[in-house]
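[Meeting: bench + compute handoff]

Bench side (C.D.) handed over the final construct sequence. Compute side (W.E.) agreed to return the predicted structure before the next meeting so the bench team could plan truncations. Sequence as handed over:
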Amino acid sequence: MESVVDVIRNALVEKYGVFGDDMGADVTFDDLDVDSLVLVELSVVLERRFGVKLPDGELTPELSLGEAASLVEAKRVAV
């Protein structure tokens, strides 16, 4: 099974054409020039994939890919 950070990374590349030399867990959405619309759409992707609820605005440009993954993982445990 893919890790949450891998799902985030793959969605950014495959669905939204986001590329970066470094897409490690510590890179932020802002570093990748991901806008708020993509973050809303990514929230929906993650909700469907992992069965969690991510309220609008929970994924912010300041979050790193790893922090976003941790947020999703914490919500999965709470379900």
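W.E. noted at the follow-up: The chain has one domain: 4-78. C.D. will use this when planning the next construct.
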